[in-house]
Request: fold
Amino acid sequence: MTIPKSTASILFVADVIGKPGYDILAAYLPSLKKKYAVDLCIVNGENGEKGKGTTENLVKKYRTLGVDVITGGNHSWTFASFRRYLDQSNWVLRPANYPDEAPGKGAAVFQSASGLAIGVLNLQGRAFMYPIDCPFKRGMEEIDRLLTQTKIIIVDVHAEATAEKMALGWHFDGKASAVIGTHTHVQTADERILPKGTAYISDAGMTGPNDSVIGLEVDVAIKRFISGIPEFYQMATSNNRLNGVVITVDGATGRAQNIERINLP
Ligand SMILES: [Fe+2]
Ligand SMILES: [Fe+2]
Reply:
């Protein structure tokens, strides 16, 4: 029988972009897991397949690398086959505040090999995004449901507006262990522990090509802005970095003890 540890170490890896992102994740994950004695590794995988969307095959590859949970966002819906897979997978979440008619689930409790129960919730913002259900109300309902099973709860808030993410951080302070922003693909330097014990960062960043415009080939991005025409998406490939955060949580109280930004190499 495994004796549960009292402290949870959670590695959250920001939006992984296509093969460049996968490769740098593969290069760094073993050493990161060892260095931080990681109990649970969460990866936002909405951009895993050539920059837009995720596939079942890719989820299996992430799992083989040692990823425990794959969260999503607005690109979770790119592939029809993946929508069907969302209903079957135990490891993949999509934002919980999509209407009930959407496939998949947005929250679950995962058991770490070290004996900890860790809740993960995926939400999506509404400012400058699809007008889905309220992330504040739906998020709190999901957190209350997870709290009946564990005090350790990690929230991926996939949103465009910093203010919306920050407001969600404060709204969940003392209830969630961490509120981690994703979607903008630019790591912010505002990581902190809020007064009631919730670790917060507005955006964990991006794992993939940094010589890009948030993952998109620079020339294509400039053309899009100058012409106003939605040029075909072309993923960039160079200057790869791994972004994310490591959060340590007191397992007895669910309060975060530390949040550290990761930006490698
Ligand atoms: Fe993304
Ligand atoms: Fe996104």
Notes: The pocket of fe (ii) ion (ligand 1) is lined by residues 15, 46-47, 73, 183, 185 (CB under 6 Å).
